[in-house]
Amino acid sequence: MKNNISINFKYIVIKIICTITCVFLFAGCSKTSQEKTTENKEALTKEVTDMSGRKVTIPTKVNKVVSLSNNTTVDLYTLNPDKLVGLSFTPKPEAKKYLGEKFINLPVLGTTSDKKLDYESVLKLKPDLIVCSDEDEVYPADDIQEQLKIPVVKVSTDLESTDKVYEFLGECIGEQQRGKELADYSRKTIDNVKSLVKKIPEDKKIKVYYAEGGEGLQTDISGNVHTEVLDLVQGKNVADIAEEKVGSMASVSMEQVLSWNPDVILEGATAVKGNFFKNVYSDQKWANIKAVKDKKVYKIPALPFNFFDRPPSAVRIIGIQWLANLLYPDYAKLDINTEIKNFYKTFYKYNLTDDEVKELLNNAALNK
Fold first, then answer.
1. Domain 202-360 is found in CATH 3.40.50.10330
2. Share of the chain above pLDDT 90, in %
3. Residues 6 or more apart from 133 whose CB is under 8 A from it?
4. Could you report the per-residue pLDDT of 19-45, keeping only the tens digit for each?
5. Rounded to an integer, what distance in angstroms lies between the CA atom of residue 111 and that of residue 88?
6. Which of 75, 101, 107, 294 has its CA 20 to 30 A from that of 129?
7. Are 88 and 109 in contact (CB under 8 A)?
8. What pTM was computed for the model?
9. Region 46-190: CATH code
């Protein structure tokens, strides 16, 4: 009898102990599960501080990006074109061989600078992130973010911040390694070009007119985002005038250009549309300008994107090498053909042939 009671008592005690143990184990598992759920939920987003100082909560995994600025369209393409789902401008048809059909055919959504942003089309694309800059105007990033409920980050257009742009965008879209590669290339190139041109004596600096507009009678002044390439390589921008609007082209007269009498003229992106280069050597209005008499009017290389400006993108990294070598071959002794090949391979993953380099530099090099 006593043995039976003892056995039953032990059984009850063991059962109670097992029950308590299970309760604690279950509670522990439940807590661990809740913690993991919380961690996973938190890991879906992260906070970044964009290049305008805005704190923005973005997804930790970004697969689809819309660009609202022309320079960010180019910069994002060089980081990872497969993540771009919407563009700010239509690429030139001739750029197709460099960029591929998929990119060329992406929807163009407009930009807030021309007040034509297609909000409905942006929403249909369901991007994880929207990227823009202050290329010409202050973009209402907060307003766009509020209306679309999609995070918007802004980057700098400053040429010397190209490396920081790549590091920031690489972090945002999960392309840190690629971002570092392009950032390192950009910083090394800028530092090298600056070290070369700082040796140029003041009396050896070249006077340059940047011709924009259909007839070449619009330009951008020194200090403008659109002339940073010229400023960095120590070219003397002859347009000593005031801007009509910050960051925009200013209209000038033929008399002003004649009085400036530049040593070199560069054909800008908007001047191409009016065939400025094609007409300048036969137009008597330009005949007495030194650059024209010396046959030193140059077409800025522009495929797939412009080396100099419009947009003021990361392509300016090869632009500073090209222009420094063009203006100051005795100081910036660069093998520009090789540098162009290296840039295209690194940034576009495109291997240029010698003939393609020659085509890019047609009317853009010495000894034409």
1. no
2. 77
3. 69, 71, 72, 139, 154, 155, 156, 157
4. 555 444 444 544 444 444 344 555 799
5. 6
6. 101
7. yes
8. 0.87
9. 3.40.50.1980
